[in-house]
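Incident log, support desk, overnight shift.

02:14 A customer reports that sequence design results differ from what the structure should imply. Their input is reproduced verbatim below. On-call engineer (initials T.W.) acknowledged and began investigating.
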């Protein structure tokens, strides 16, 4: 299938598709099949993480696919327990060995873990790994403005990406504006709210979906795109993978966008993971 997903250019020049593929819980042989299916269907941006224990699965799917490596954009993430400079470098190398890849397109700090206060060291390791050609583009996940400010002040290097929890119950307006102002592209994790029933059966979303002859998932994913964020939905089903890519033949009105954004809840996080205090292992 021809890849027709529009692209966005990061602040370091790397072009990313406007929608990617999440891989959390895709492990083992079934995981390889699901990721291979996603690549064949047309996904080019793949998410993964050291802590998902599936970098090997992603690498295997990439090798089994007929898509040249340079057309794929592969992401992994540095876990919280390896933020010290030397451990971060070793972990990036280990991530590459696990996937059997020469380089990652994107490598992100998974969580800031501000209580440990080592994320600037971790960032310096990513900066150096990029210089050495192990990574093409470096970014962060779950970083609040105060964390990004420190990276900029202490290293002068602005992340290309900030991957954050973002779905209609937690729409992150201020963080999105902050990222945009600083030239940082936002990626939305759990973009479908992990298939939260309250979201998937929401009457307002259903009404908008019927107007556009689309599914609720497609409406939500299109909302992310029009907010300027890259959603990375995970699906193990080829049918739903295809559905989640069919987002570029319709447009939500300003009224639709507003009706979705007002579903936001102050405590709308799925698992109460506040980056100011959450400690990722
Ligand atoms: N940086 C971070 O801290 C962080 C945290 C969490 C997640 N992530 C990344 O973000 C990715 C996406 O988030 P997520 O996996 O938590 O949640 P999600 O993508 O919001 O939701 C995944 C769930 O939705 C279902 N689904 C997918 N497409 C659907 C459709 N069209 N209709 C109905 N159900 C559908 C999937 O089921 P089926 O598989 O059965 O289709 C699965 O149960 C992860 O996989 C991971 O790569 C990053």
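02:41 Re-run completed on a clean worker. Output:
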């Amino acid at each position: 299938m021809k890849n027709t997903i529009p692209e966005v250019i990061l602040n370091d020049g790397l072009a990313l598709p406007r929608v990617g593929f999440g891989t959390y819980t895709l492990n083992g042989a079934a995981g390889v099949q699901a990721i291979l299916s996603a690549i064949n269907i047309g996904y080019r941006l793949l998410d993964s993480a050291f802590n998902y224990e599936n970098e090997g699965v992603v690498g295997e799917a990439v090798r089994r696919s007929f898509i040249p490596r340079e057309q794929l954009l592969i992401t992994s993430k540095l876990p919280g327990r390896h933020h010290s400079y030397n451990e971060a470098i070793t972990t990036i190398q280990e991530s590459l060995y696990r996937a059997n890849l020469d380089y990652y397109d994107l490598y992100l700090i998974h969580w800031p873990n501000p209580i440990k206060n080592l994320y600037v060291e971790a960032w310096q390791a990513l900066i150096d790994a990029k210089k050495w050609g192990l990574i093409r583009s470096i970014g962060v996940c779950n970083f609040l403005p105060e964390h990004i400010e420190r990276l900029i002040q202490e290293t002068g290097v602005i992340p290309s990406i900030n991957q954050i929890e973002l779905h209609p119950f937690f729409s992150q307006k201020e963080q999105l504006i902050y990222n945009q102002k600083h030239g940082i592209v936002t990626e939305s994790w759990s973009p479908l709210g992990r298939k939260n029933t309250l979201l998937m059966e929401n009457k307002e979303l259903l009404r908008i979906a019927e107007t556009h002859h689309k599914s609720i998932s497609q409406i939500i994913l299109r909302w992310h795109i029009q907010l300027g964020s890259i959603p990375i939905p995970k699906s193990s089903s080829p049918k739903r993978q295809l559905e989640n890519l069919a987002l570029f033949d319709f447009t939500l009105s300003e009224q639709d966008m507003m009706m979705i954004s007002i579903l936001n809840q102050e405590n709308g996080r799925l698992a109460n993971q506040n980056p100011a205090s959450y400690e990722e292992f």
